Amino acid sequence: MKFSIKRTAFVNSLNIVSRAISSKTTIPILTGLKIVATKDGLILTGSNADISIETRIKASNADNKLAIASTGSIVLPARFFSSIVKKLPQDTMTLDVTDNFQTRITSGSSSFDINGLDPTNYPHLPEIDSDDSITLSGDIFKEIIQQTVIAVSDQESRPILNGVHFVLSDNQLVAVATDSHRLSQRKVKIDDSDKSFDFIIPGDSLVELSRMIKEHQDIQMRISENQVLFTLDETSFYSRLLEGNYPDTSRLIPTTSSTTLQFEAPVLLSAIERASLLSHESRNNVVKFTLKPSQKIATISGNSPDVGKVEENLQPDSMDGEDLTISYNPDYMKDALRSFGKTMINISFTSPLRPFTLVPTEEKENFVQLITPVRTF
Q: Where in the cell is it found (predicted)?
């Protein structure tokens, strides 16, 4: 196998597949990058068994300056190879593989020889049996990921909660995540889709996928029994699906409230960030909300015995209902508020020990964040 290519074009594709390559894998060959040269171009593959990424560099694209002298394949140690390619002196590079997998990389007067691995030992990419595909707006799907993945659990005791639960039915996609302390749910309409799906994607996979989605890019999604495939232009992103039944979260969201208030999300976020400066020094990391609708005042307070106290009075845009004092983890609240951006939000409480919800004032039925309070007595 031998080819030459514009180095920046190669590095761009190398960076994409490197997202799936880990040095901490039980399968040694997965620490490597697989390169396949065909008459049509190059195929780069990286995998860590949980996610696999494959991207193509077309010879027909003149910007790539790709010339295939001979076809073939090789697996190269990803970390060393990536470092070498990024440090090469010229804008073009040549890669030449001999029969015993010895690989020479040249650029200008610089030349490296590294040991490759037999590509036939590299695991095959998952096969997606289903031909059913759904086209999604990359911008919207990226937003869904960012708004829900914050509530994914990082505990291994309940692995089903390590992912985001997606349900597609009646032209509506619902995404839900919970770690049993908080919950995030987002709904979006999917036009012209009569398909029905129910699947759980690991949160780690979604974080990597969101980093790959470009602005205004459409993506295609295909589901099989235990894999999902996302296609983004010349790149294919595979992820395993979590097996099991996700808990019914719909019953967790309160339908009534005793106290409600309305805030600009950034205003409340700034106040909680100030209060958490002291709460983080406390062993229990708790911030308290004291709500007095009759006076139209909401007080945020925190107490760290070793450092001191913080108290700040806020005036919500609107406030109704009964007086209430509730304690919560400020980090959960900050994550929730950041997910709304610069939106006006409604916060609804039922009692000091029941979960409370945050929703945008517009399209409030499509997005909800729920937080469970902390018992302080």
A: Cytoplasm
